Amino acid sequence: MASIRASNVVPSSFPSSSSRCRREIMTVRATINMPKLRNGSSLSLPKLTTIGLVEELQLRSGYKNTTTTQFEKLSPSPKASDPMAIEKLYAIMEAVADRVEMHKNIGEQRNNWNNLLLTSINSITLTASLMTGVAAMGAGGAPLVALKLSSTLLYLAATGMLLVTNKIQPSQLAEEQRNAARWFKQLYEEIHTTVSIGAPNSNDVKEATAKVIALDRAYPLPLLGVMLKKFPKAVEPAVWWAPLQNRKTKGLGGRNNGNGWNGELEGEMREIVTVLNRKDKEDYLRLGKKALKLNKALAISGPLLTALAAFGSAFAGHGPWAVVLGVVAGALSTVVNAIEHGGQVGMVFEMYRSNAGFFELMQESIESNLEEREGERRENGELFEMKVALQLGRSLSELRDLTASSSIKGEANHEFASKLF
């Protein structure tokens, strides 16, 4: 073994008055003692290995020092958006937002029409009926003539107002505007999504423009000339969409073979179309026909009763039949008007048409995807299935249970596809 001994000698103090620094005197004494080696023996030292830092890290981490060169196929960069298409879509969004506000305001206005006309007509009718009864109790002379004339004029005014009100159906007009505001708002969100996560092009602009024009035609604002028929000969689903185009969802089309579609999913979609056509849409069309018949009967009965009441009030004092006709017909007219416009039968009819149209749109959307032979041109299957389930108010498992039950029971299955309405 070797030992090292060292001693330091340091001065204990330095005079403060000295102008120069003195050197430290350090004495180092070292003694090295080495072990004596025997004759013929040699000193063996451990071998030192020189290794690089990279190799050492590789050995510690367990990776071999191998060099491989691998070329990976880079995915193509997403298609750049067309700046002009984006500007046009923003312009369409502004127009759609304006239409949403416009239809919302007009819908509120026409709902106020319904309330004001209902209150005014019933007030006029009840006043005329009361005046007819008072005229029958009078002795005669000028007061009788004044009461008879006033009640007759009020009944005639109520008849004219009822004819106009029943023709335009304010409650149905308000429902049309509410539906228009709803679909325009949905279109606004669709365009916003396309601009946000997609790569808009000229086809997106054409499609958005076609949807706006289709909605304008389906829900016109003017009352004269282009107003929707309130008493159509045949009840058909409301149509507010442009012809559907087969377009796959951007960013999802190439993830897997078939674009998320397989034979099982196609079978499920066909069963859903069958259930929608057999149960949901058919049921709402049936209810729409009943609402239309009731509305027609009420629309004819109201003005007819007020006209009969006007005839009876004009002949008040010439017999009991005139007084009975004038008073009773006026009271019945008030009841009929309250049922028709207070119950908003026209709005109910339009709601049934709109619901049937909603299922018609779903049916066309599913069929347009199924008719497309190439899976890549369809909308992504998984996303499309989720959309259908949400629109019907079901989870994916409930949707599959519905299709399984429908395929087994067939027409004996009485379950509706939609759980929302």
* Terminal residue distance: 98 Å
Task: Report the sheet with the most strands, covering strand number, pairing sense and barrel closure.
Answer: none
Strand content: under 5%
Mean pLDDT: 80
Briefly note the structural class of the backbone. mainly alpha
Number of domains: 1
Helical content stands at 55-70%
Q: How many helical stretches?
A: 10
Compute the number of strand runs: 0
Low-confidence stretches: 1-78, 248-256
Radius of gyration, Cα only, in angstroms?
45 Å
Order of helices and strands: HHHHHHHHHH
3D shape: elongated
Can you tell me about this structure?
The chain crosses the membrane at residues 116-139, 145-164, 297-315, 321-339. The protein is mainly alpha-helical. The chain has one domain (83-241, 261-409). Helices cover 62% and strands 0% of the residues. It contains ten helices and no strands.
Features:
421 residues, mainly alpha, 62% helix, disordered N terminus
Ordered list of secondary-structure elements with their pairings:
Elements: H1 53-61, H2 83-137, H3 142-168, H4 170-197, H5 202-218, H6 263-314, H7 320-342, H8 345-371, H9 381-391, H10 396-409
Helix pairs in contact: 2-3, 2-4, 2-5, 2-7, 3-6, 4-5, 4-8, 6-7, 6-8, 6-10
Organism: Rhododendron simsii
Keywords: Membrane, Transmembrane, Transmembrane helix
Protein name: F-box protein
